UniProtKB/TrEMBL annotation:
HAMAP family: Cytidyl_kinase_type1
Residues reported in the UniProt entry to bind ATP: G10, P11, A12, A13, S14, G15, K16, G17, T18
GO molecular function, one term: kinase activity
Domain Cytidylate kinase: 6-196
Enzyme Commission code: 2.7.4.25
Pfam families: Cytidylate_kin
UniProt keywords, alphabetically: ATP-binding, Cytoplasm, Kinase, Nucleotide-binding, Transferase
Entry's family note: Belongs to the cytidylate kinase family. Type 1 subfamily.
Catalytic activity: CMP + ATP = CDP + ADP; dCMP + ATP = dCDP + ADP
Compartments, as annotated in UniProt: Cytoplasm
Protein name: Cytidylate kinase
Amino acid sequence: MAGFTVAIDGPAASGKGTLARHIAESYGFHHLDTGLTYRAVARALLDAGVPLDDERQAAAIASQLDFGGLDRATLSAHGIGEAASRVAVMPQVRAALVKAQQRFAARPPGTVLDGRDIGTVVCPQAPVKLFVTATPEVRARRRYDEISAAGNGLSYDAVLADLKKRDARDSARTDSPLRPAEDAHLLDTSEMDIEAAFRAAKRLIDAAYAPGASS
Ligand SMILES: Nc1ncnc2c1ncn2[C@@H]1O[C@H](COP(=O)(O)OP(=O)(O)OP(=O)(O)O)[C@@H](O)[C@H]1O
Ligand SMILES: Nc1ccn([C@@H]2O[C@H](COP(=O)(O)O)[C@@H](O)[C@H]2O)c(=O)n1
């Protein structure tokens, strides 16, 4: 019996991961930040001194990735996002990761996956799809605050430029570009705090989710 899946997509630093974690905690669902899977492949290539565009080696790493060992604290470093988005253009890497992400998505009683292609490719049958956005300036401000609080010295302008560059690459790639699924609910959090975004998502989930029933 398949579990209930909440599919969350959106551009960098839109707040999709924060929202996904709140939903998972509130409903007792398993959460997968699929961005970490692309980041882990990029990290492994960088550590091994392998060029980021070596599709064969990248796909081999992707097909053996241990989803249980993804360490958000180290992989979420700002610089790895750029490397991950270069790795994420390669179809063989995506195919390997999507297969494992789909296995994860079937876990009972339910799952929340966040990324760029969850509603369109990984879980097109998900009963609830959210596309989380905010203006580039708001997203850059949030990410800048996060990076500054961690003691790192990037300027706001550098963060904004990085986010725009990564969003452009993610949206323009041929395989599984960043875009909302046709049946996704748009959630613009530019003027919402984390709690308001969660309340809006909860209304949509509660309208579709009956605990104990299969999806
Ligand atoms: N609605 C919100 N209001 C204010 N701050 C928020 C909101 N949502 C998220 N944040 C903050 O913005 C930053 C980015 O959020 P988060 O990491 O969830 O984004 P993301 O879309 O998952 O990013 P990435 O694509 O890099 O994985 C975090 O510091 C988070 O605490
Ligand atoms: N489903 C996904 C998730 C992520 N990516 C790529 O990984 C990069 C890093 O993701 P974050 O969510 O951690 O920022 C992202 O820029 C994408 O290139 C993806 O393609 N598909």
